[in-house]
Amino acid sequence: MTKVLHTILLFSALTIGINASAQKANKLGWINSNDLLLLMPERDSAEAQLKAFAQQLELQLTSMTGEYEKKYTEYQQNMAVMNDVVKASKEEEIMDLQTRIQEFQQKAQQSLQKKEGALMEPLIKKAKDAISAVAKENGYNYVFDVSVGTLLHYPEGDDLLPLVKTKMGITASK
């Protein structure tokens, strides 16, 4: 009888321990990181720097566009009196300027994106570090970002990629 009672108590203790462990392992939380980033005071400074950078690029583009419009207008006004060599030279000059403007627009867009990334990276890292710290302090194992649908914080675990690759018969690696 005592052996049966001992077994029942041991099973109950294990079941309670497993249930408590399972409940703790499943503590989930969520955050809207966009809302958090909007509330960060550093965001205003980053946006101001990005705006100033964009204005510099816009001024350069406006200058180039003004030069293009001036040359094109002059070409149209004087086209009738130009000989073929001068006309071809002016057309080539205008087309080159148009190409430079297009290239500048592409490079400016890339530069603006790069600048935004450089300015926002420290803010995003600071936010992510704070989210991880709060999650750890409050026992959250998983924190989801509802603004983009991603997992921000999770416990250390095993990478299942090698096992899934084996299961699927995939031998290639990147």
Task: Walk me through what this model shows.
The structure is a single chain. With 174 residues, this protein is mainly alpha-helical. The chain has one domain (27-168). Helices cover 75% and strands 7% of the residues. The protein has 5 helices and 3 strands. The chain has helices at 2-25, 33-39, 42-78, 84-137, 161-168; strands spanning 28-31, 142-145, 150-153. The protein has a 3-stranded mixed β-sheet. The longest helix has 54 residues, at 84-137. Residues 4-22 have low confidence and may be disordered.
Give the key terms.
5 helices; mainly alpha; 174 residues; three-stranded mixed β-sheet
In terms of topology, how is this protein built?
Elements: H1 2-25, E1 28-31, H2 33-39, H3 42-78, H4 84-137, E2 142-145, E3 150-153, H5 161-168
Parallel strand pairs: 1-2
Antiparallel strand pairs: 2-3
Helix pairs in contact: 3-4
